[in-house]
């Protein structure tokens, strides 16, 4: 059984969706987990709900695209506990548009959160983990990193996350710190449920139906499916696995 007792974790973008599921799972395995998100009310609600389950969770409002805030968050958690064992870079947004119509603002917004935000969190965390000679960095990329229609900004950022992850893995391996990326395929969260409102003409009624048709298992995944992989990568059992890019997608990318 995965035992994270005594470990301290930060999960970004964990007020809802995948991040919430990941935070809940890490806490259920015994970790003290910082629920961090730009959505202040969401942080409060999620902390209350998970604490009511008896889990060790703390809340912190954090915009990962703000370098100073990101550094302060990592340093404050370290100062409070004298350690930082697990960083899960999960916060992400999409601003989809076809390349020929994408605005520069859409490009920058997504790169700021989905790529710069990962760097802003990982750099201070890596300094702590090097010193500590242990640590786990798990980055949530996406199956879209290999390219996806309407997602030039998102795919570029998620591909950047893969490069950052592999570099961190190479640099930190000798310090007992691992860095891996998970690529969810199509997971049921508020981000994807919005596709049920996108009506299509042709064989699929909505963009949700179209996406599900691309999954060999014939259904969207659940946040728990991703959280299970994060919990394993965060554990001592995964000590010899680093620099990997792992699909969790019901066979979507094979
Ligand atoms: P979601 O929109 O349901 O949740 C994202 C959370 O991140 C929200 O709580 C939001 O407030 C927070 N957030 C947004 N910007 C932030 C910022 N600047 N700083 C801190 N928090 C911020 O999305 P989700 O589906 O749970 O996605 C989580 C991650 O998984 C994202 O990185 C996303 O790209 C990735 N992903 C999701 C899927 C999927 O099918 N749902 C597939 C592949 C990858």
What is the number of domains? 2
Total strands: the figure is 7
Helix run count: 8
Largest sheet: 7 strands, parallel
Heterogens = nicotinamide-adenine-dinucleotide
For the CA atoms, what is the radius of gyration? Answer: 18 Å
User: Which regions contain 5 or more consecutive residues with pLDDT less than 50?
Assistant: none
Report a brief summary of the structure.
The chain is of the alpha/beta class and 254 residues long.
Protein architecture, described:
The protein is of the alpha/beta class and 254 residues long. It has eight helices and seven strands; from the N terminus they run βαβαβαβαβαβαααβ. It has a seven-stranded parallel beta sheet with strand order 3-2-1-4-5-6-7, sandwiched between helices. Helix 2 (40-52) links the parallel strand 2 (32-37) and strand 3. The longest helix is centred in the middle third of the chain and has 29 residues, at 104-132.
Topology:
Layout: E1 8-12, H1 17-28, E2 32-37, H2 40-52, E3 57-61, H3 67-81, E4 86-89, H4 104-132, E5 135-140, H5 152-172, E6 177-184, H6 190-193, H7 207-213, H8 223-234, E7 245-248
Parallel strand pairs: 1-2, 1-4, 2-3, 4-5, 5-6, 6-7
Helix pairs in contact: 1-8, 3-4, 4-5
Key structural traits:
254 residues, alpha/beta, Rossmann fold, 2 domains, seven-stranded parallel sheet
């Amino acid at each position: 059984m995965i035992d994270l007792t005594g470990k301290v974790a930060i999960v970004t973008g964990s007020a809802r969706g995948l991040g919430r599921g990941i935070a809940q799972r890490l806490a259920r395995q015994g970790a003290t987990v910082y629920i961090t998100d730009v959505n202040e009310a969401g942080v409060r609600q999620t902390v209350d709900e998970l604490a009511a389950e008896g889990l060790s969770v703390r809340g912190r409002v954090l915009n990962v695209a703000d370098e100073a805030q990101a550094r302060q968050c990592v340093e404050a958690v370290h100062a409070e506990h004298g350690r930082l064992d697990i960083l899960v870079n999960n916060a992400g947004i999409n601003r989809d548009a076809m390349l020929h119509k994408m605005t520069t603002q859409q490009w920058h917004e997504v790169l700021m959160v989905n790529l710069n935000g990962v760097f802003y969190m990982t750099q201070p965390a890596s300094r702590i983990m090097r010193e500590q000679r242990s640590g786990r960095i798990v980055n949530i990329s996406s199956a879209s990193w290999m390219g996806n229609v309407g997602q030039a900004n998102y795919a570029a950022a998620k591909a950047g996350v893969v490069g950052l992850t592999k570099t961190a893995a190479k640099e930190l391996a000798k310090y007992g710190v691992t860095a891996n990326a998970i690529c969810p395929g199509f997971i049921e969260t508020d981000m994807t449920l919005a596709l049920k409102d996108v009506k299509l003409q042709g064989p699929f009624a909505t963009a949700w139906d179209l996406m599900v048709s691309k999954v060999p298992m014939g259904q969207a995944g659940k946040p728990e499916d991703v959280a299970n992989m994060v919990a394993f990568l965060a554990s001592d059992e995964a000590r010899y696995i680093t620099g990997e890019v792992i699909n969790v997608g019901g066979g979507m990318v094979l």
